[in-house]
Please model this.
Amino acid sequence: MVVLLLFTYIPLLGSVIAWMDYVPFLGFTGSDWVGWDNFTALFQDSAFWSAVWNTLQITFLQLLLFFPVPILLAVLLNTVAMPFARRFVQSVIYLPHFLSWVVIIALFQQIAGGAGVINRFLITHGASPLDIMTNPQIFKLLLTTQAIWKDAGWGTIIFLAAIAAIDQGLYESAVIDGAGAWNRFWHVTLPGMRPIIVLMLILRLGDSLTVGFEQILLQRDAVGPGAAEVLDTFVYYNGVIDGSWGAATAAGLLKGVVSLFLVLAANKLAHRLGEEGVYRR
Amino acid sequence: MTIDNGSASRPLVNPLSRRNVLKGAGLGAALAAFGVPLAACGSGSGSGSGGGAAAPAAGKSVPLPTYVPPVKPKPTLEGNGQGLMDVYDSFPLNGPKTVNGPVGDGGEFNFLVMTYGEPAPPLEENVYWQLLNKELNVKVNPIRVPFADFATKFPAMVAGDDLPEVVSIPLYMNVARLPQLAEAQFTDLSDHLSGDAVKKYPNLAGIQEAGWLNGYLNGRIYGVPKSDPVYGAGQIYTKTDVIQAAGANPQPKNLAEFKDLAKAVTNPKAGVYAFGGSISEFLQMAFGVPNKWTRNADGSFTSAYEHPGFIPAIQEMAGMYKSGYFHPDTTMNANQGKVQRDALFRSGKIAMIMDGTRAVGIVADDKDVVFGLMVPFAKDGGKGIYWTGGGAYAMTMLKKTSDKSKIERFLRVLDYIAAPFGSRESFIMSYGVEGADYTVKNGVAVLTTRGQREQDLGLAYIAGGPQVLNDPQGAPGVDKLNYEWQQQVVPNLLANPAQHLYSQTQNSKGAALEQQMQDAITSVFLGREQPSTLAPAVQKWKAGGGDRMAKEFAEAAAQAG
Model:
């Protein structure tokens, strides 16, 4: 409790710098109070709204495309009968999680970039190259693909645990009742996983606005801020590099508030659907 | 990491309002962020220092340190005061001693420094480090921040009050609010350095005014500079063998010839392209765009973005991109890549790169690379202008203390480090221990592989006077090549009149505004936007703060006289 207070709640008080022209080396007492200036400046900046819009689009895309992938993978993995093969596959799909974004983006670049394997092949065979890495139109899909490649395997861990927790007796009864593979999945596995899926969905929504600072920063110049500026990079370019901590905090705070509402809304929905959500009512 | 801040952990800011602190201050250094978006590093293009005398607020305004030219050995090729650098074939082996008496006090010398390469081996295995500890009589303890992390890590260290006792800041990294930072957290060195006081530290007295101006804040001296050559803009390195194989001329005399060259070397089927990153600066200079600002006859300031050559220069670059003269990874090289780009240059896949003057040594490290330097031209022929930089690479400061012995120790250590080329101390800094770090062949000291690895403590980046050209281990003839290029360029140097002036707007908003402009330039360059979008972008930049900067610079210039 003390630790929680010390490291979570007390630092929260630092949010007051959203209402200050905060200069770290002058401290709280030395910096000027500026009222709502930081917020009004933010709301009047079209770049900020463009960043919000991009963030929401990426959030939605990742939810739609990324979130189901680990669940499917976990179910598929669960069907692999040979323990050795299963462990091997698990190791292989966990691995990308431990690579840094720099490495992953370099890999994508080597394969799909303008001078990558695919385009070299096309150019040497007289075809015109494909614009994958630098195309603002498909940039958000590219981001999601990269995220899936990196973290889908890692995401299976919790779902695999959820599957393992399902009573094997249920499967046996189902088989005896004549259920096929599909019916076992639909009527036993999925319902068994449902509380965990809902919980993970809510947790995911909580930090879904954090769409990947490093990943985007590395690729921002390739497609331009119009397609790639998200809240986190906006904060970096407009707050951190200029030392405008006040404005940066204001933007961060807004992000936190929106995230809180997303979590609360998802939790409410979960309760409506008869699930536990993050807490029992 | 928490490092002892001494008495300065809670800065005692004198009861000045921030406005006063800022007025006409110096050290505005490095706030302009005029970086090149796709090849920023090394071109040393970002600065826009503040400086100049101004309203005395914190204390009495003091004169800059008196310059006492160092005694130098006779160069092979003689430089000049305009910035042409001396060339030496080799480092004199038995140079004169320039530091007398004890340097340190046996205590720790913790300093923050930005480094580029692999960290040096640990102290126990590193005889170079051991030798320097002995020479300086301190425990040299570099706190390295890798180049790639500096922009994110440094603000965090400032915010977290984690700065060590000595902090060296590369000016081109455009650290936010550096003047306030210096006033609040670092020691005013004026009493020890101003005027003739600096003569107590003869090697620091050998640093020229252009360097000191970067640490001159509010008429007081806050930092010791590491001087930089005057060449502030990007220059084009040409892969001569690739260009000649394509039957092209590596020294075009005007824009049309330049484009012919780019066209001739580009061969997508072979994977060879003319360029690997932005060449915006080079083209802007060809179009006569001034160095960030122009001071008009009536004393007002006009931004280079408003120069009639600016938009056409970017448009020209966009046209070349559209023609396919740029390597397809150009956009990605922005972040991942100077290393990648340089590798492509070495292997002949890119025929020309734009980089700063320091890159000469890096390119020349690889003796097999045949390269040349393109002399800037004006677009319709004739000599092109060339932008100068801020006079210093880095500024080294001491955490706020009133302890006189601490300040003197700091200055004595830096005095040693700043020893000029040819001196015994400079030799030790460059070569280390005989037998292990270097061997002598035909009277020329040659670094061993071990010596090259052990050196990277970062000491060389933190203080020093004028640099010379001396690369006996680089590609043959590289110094002469560079010298000849400098001879061509020196008569056409163009300074930034706002370089050492202070503007509050630039200080607090400059980096974000510059980012907006660079984003607009990149978008046009890569064909995402039409060149016609640049004019509104410049208007937005002006309205967002550019106009205020111009006004503040004009005021500061009027005040400075």
